[in-house]
Amino acid sequence: MVDRVPWMAPVDYEIMLFFDEHAIQVSPRVLAANIEYDRQYVSKRCRILSESGLLEAVDTGLYQLTETGEEYLEGELDVSELGTSE
After folding, report:
1. CA torsion sign, 67 to 73 to 76 to 79?
2. Which domains, from first to last, does the chain contain?
3. What are phi and psi of 64, to 5 degrees?
4. Please, which residues have CB within 8 angstroms of residue 47's CB and are 6 or more apart in sequence?
5. DSSP code of residue 81
6. Tell me: the pLDDT tens digits for 30-62?
7. Which helix (H) or strand (E) holds 56?
8. pLDDT > 90: percent of the chain
9. What is the spatial distance between Cα 86 and Cα 79, in angstroms, rounded to a whole number?
10. Burial of 9 by CB count in 10 Å (0-12 exposed, 13-18 middle, 19+ buried)?
């Protein structure tokens, strides 16, 4: 179980879990189609997660989970180490 981060939206967990289950690089459009959220909202949240170090923008419009993101999902990261992104 992971500790809740106050600035995170419910979709952020869905985004990170998708990347945890699928070790691939995807665009917000593909991600949104797979988790059934609005593409623009998913794109915004991916940018925020990237700024926080949980996702990485690996190419124009493509994201993947970082080691920090993996540690967070495994409950091995102190959430106080994550900066607020909003």
Report:
1. positive
2. 10-77 (1.10.10.10)
3. -150, 160
4. 57
5. G
6. 999 999 999 999 999 999 999 999 999 998 899
7. strand 55-59
8. 74
9. 15
10. middle
